[in-house]
Amino acid sequence: MHQRLPYHHNEIPPGQKSIYVSIRFGNPTSGDCRNFGICKMKVFDGPITRFQKRNGYALARLSIVNDKKQLLFEKAFMTKASQKLYFGDGFFFVEAEATLGEVLSRRLEIENTFLRAGKYPIIETLTSFTLTF
What we know:
Layout (H helix, E strand, L loop, with lengths): L2 E3 L12 E8 L12 E6 L13 E9 L2 E7 L5 H8 L3 E4 L3 E2 L2 H7 L5 E2 L2 E8 L2 E5 L1
Parallel strand pairs: 1-9
Antiparallel strand pairs: 2-3, 2-4, 4-5, 5-10, 6-9, 7-8, 9-10
């Protein structure tokens, strides 16, 4: 279910493991990342101010919360068109299974895991969209 929460729910708890990842939206099986889901995800090691906003891409914080994976997409690091296309219906649609990959799994000290195909509810605040899987 789509929820709007006040700004103060937009924070990762102190001591929580999280890393910034750059994301290219789309279907990883399409070859050119069209349609919906997460086509590519990689660790973003630079200062977040260097992230360039453009359609089809986002900067997000990946973390583990209560043994679940959580992606917090900050609106400031997405174009309005991407926000509307990928989060506008209150759900995040994943057409094909996507893997976190070895590098991300090592950084978070978890086993390699997958984001399965499906329709995921999001939580929207004034500044972000949160997806839990």
